[in-house]
Amino acid sequence: MTDDTIFDKIIRREIPSDILYEDDDVLAFSDVNPQAPVHFLVIPKQRIATLNDLQPEHAELVGKLVLTARQLAADKGLAEDGYRLVMNCNDHGGQTVFHIHLHVLGGRPMGWPPG
Ligand code: 5GP
Q: Quick check: CB of 88 below 6 Å from ligand 1?
């Protein structure tokens, strides 16, 4: 498929990744270039390129991304100290993979505002 991204290859197990959770709708795996002691991504299996492409019918799926992130963060012991969820959109947002994904970052204090 021409508009495949690296994440489609991870979903299809064509490239290896450290998969933390999977169901029919979502996949979670460790980020290959972690920016914090804990850094994983939660993605829909359905490819949606950017946040700009979200439609009302995706509401349940987006909710599931957040709830999956919340559960995995709790499983990793991040709930009490806290953690950060990030979704980057396009150039100014710093998006590099055009398949929406929720970053989950934790294990250290996060600065604010972001650079
Ligand atoms: P973005 O910059 O689009 O918000 O985030 C893309 C993320 O995907 C980056 O944090 C990057 O490290 C991660 N990433 C890119 N390629 C791979 C890969 O092949 N495997 C894994 N596990 N993560 C990747």
A: yes
